[in-house]
Design a protein that fits this description.
Layout: H1 2-25, E1 34-35, H2 95-110, H3 120-152, H4 164-168, E2 184-185, H5 190-209, H6 212-218, H7 221-237, E3 239-259, E4 262-279, E5 285-287, E6 293-304, E7 310-316
Antiparallel strand pairs: 1-7, 2-3, 3-4, 4-5, 4-6, 6-7
Helix pairs in contact: 2-3, 5-6
C-alpha cells in the first residue's frame, strides 16, 4: 500500500512540474479574439503573406450576428434518417393489436380466454368481437396518418417513395434572408499603414503601463472595456502584464472597406515583444520569460472620415 501511494505521489508531482514548466514557456498574455469588424465581424478575413492561415474567429463582440451571415450548417442526415422517409408500421406491427390477437387465438386453442371465468363458445365470440373492434380502430388510426403522405405522392402506383418536401421544394430555392451588405472596398495609403504600426506599439505599451487614458484614446469603447476587464483581473491577482520592446517585423493589409461614414481596415501584423507577468509589489516575473517572443495577430482599425484610426478588434492568427 505504501509503495502504491508513493508511486501515485511521484506521478502527480511529475505532472505538476511539467505543467509549471509549460506555463513558464508560454506568453503571459491571455490572447483571444475580440472586438467588432462592422458587417464583417463574423466573416473570415482573407489570408495574407503575414498570416497565410485563417485567423481565429471573433469570440467576444458587441456586434450582433445578422440573420443571413455566417450561418452554422448542420451535417446532412442520410435518407433513411429523415422521419418523412421511414415506413409507417403496419397493422400487425402495433404491439397492442398483435398482443390482443395472439392472446385471443391462443386462448381459443387452449380452451380458455382472457380469464378463468371466460370459457366456451360465448367467451370465444366475445374475444373475437373485442379483437375485431380494437383492430378496426387501430387500422383507421394508422390509415388516417398515412393519408396526407399518400395524397402528396406524385404517382400512386409507383413503388419508390419521395418525401413531400422533395415535391413542394421550388426548382430555384430563394434565400431566407437578403445577403448582408459588406460595404465597399477602400484604398489604404502609406500613412494609414504607419498609423496601424504606431497604434500596435502604443496600445501594447499603454496596456503594459496600465494607462487607461492612453488606451481609451486609441481604441473603441468596446475594446477599451475588454482590456480594462483584463487589467482589473490582473490587479485582483496581484500581478501586472508588462509589455515592452515592441518591434514590427512584417505586416500587410488583409482587407479595407467602408460602411456609410465609417472606414475599416484589417491588417495582419507579426511583431516581437517582451511580454511577462510580474508581481505588483516585488516586480518579480511570475509568468513568461524576459526575452523577445514573436506574435502574429490581425488588428482591425476603424475611423470616421477625417478622424484618426482606432483599434476595434484583435484576432489571433490560427
Amino acid at each position: 500500500m505504501t509503495s502504491r501511494l508513493s508511486k501515485i505521489f511521484a506521478v502527480t508531482g511529475l505532472s505538476l512540474a511539467m505543467g509549471l514548466s509549460l506555463a513558464s514557456e508560454a506568453d503571459a498574455r491571455r490572447g483571444g479574439s475580440f472586438g467588432s469588424r462592422g458587417a464583417r465581424t463574423y466573416n473570415a478575413a482573407p489570408a495574407t503573406k503575414t498570416a497565410p492561415t485563417q485567423a481565429a474567429p471573433v469570440q467576444r463582440s458587441m456586434t450582433e450576428r445578422q440573420p443571413g451571415q455566417a450561418a452554422a450548417t448542420s451535417p446532412a442526415r442520410p435518407l433513411g434518417a429523415n422521419p418523412m422517409n421511414q415506413r409507417r408500421p403496419g397493422l400487425f406491427s402495433n404491439p397492442l393489436v398483435r398482443g390482443l390477437m395472439l392472446g385471443g387465438l391462443l386462448g381459443l386453442l387452449l380452451g380458455h380466454g382472457f380469464g378463468a371465468g371466460m370459457a366456451g363458445m360465448l367467451g370465444g365470440l366475445l374475444q373475437i368481437a373485442l379483437i375485431a373492434i380494437v383492430a378496426m380502430l387501430a387500422f383507421r388510426f394508422l390509415a388516417s396518418r398515412r393519408r396526407p403522405a399518400e395524397a402528396a405522392a406524385p404517382n400512386a402506383g409507383s413503388t419508390s417513395f419521395r418525401s413531400p418536401f422533395d415535391i413542394q421544394q421550388p426548382a430555384s430555392p430563394q434565400p431566407a434572408y437578403a445577403p448582408v451588405d459588406l460595404g465597399q472596398d477602400l484604398a489604404v495609403t502609406g500613412a494609414d499603414r504607419e498609423a496601424f504600426e504606431r497604434l500596435l506599439r502604443e496600445v501594447q505599451e499603454a496596456f503594459g503601463r496600465e494607462d487607461y487614458g492612453a488606451i481609451r484614446e486609441r481604441t473603441t469603447p468596446e475594446i477599451m472595456s475588454y482590456l480594462a476587464e483584463e487589467l482589473g483581473q490582473n490587479a485582483t491577482r496581484g500581478v501586472r502584464n508588462k509589455v515592452s520592446d515592441i518591434q514590427m517585423l512584417e505586416g500587410d493589409v488583409a482587407e479595407a472597406w467602408s460602411e456609410g461614414d465609417l472606414e475599416y481596415a484589417t491588417a495582419a501584423m507579426r511583431y516581437s515583444s517582451r511580454d511577462v507577468m510580474v508581481d505588483r509589489e516585488s516586480g518579480a516575473i511570475v509568468e513568461g520569460e524576459d526575452r523577445p517572443t514573436e506574435t502574429t495577430e490581425l488588428w482591425t482599425f476603424v475611423r470616421r472620415r477625417g478622424e484618426p484610426w482606432k483599434v476595434s478588434a484583435i484576432q489571433e492568427a490560427a
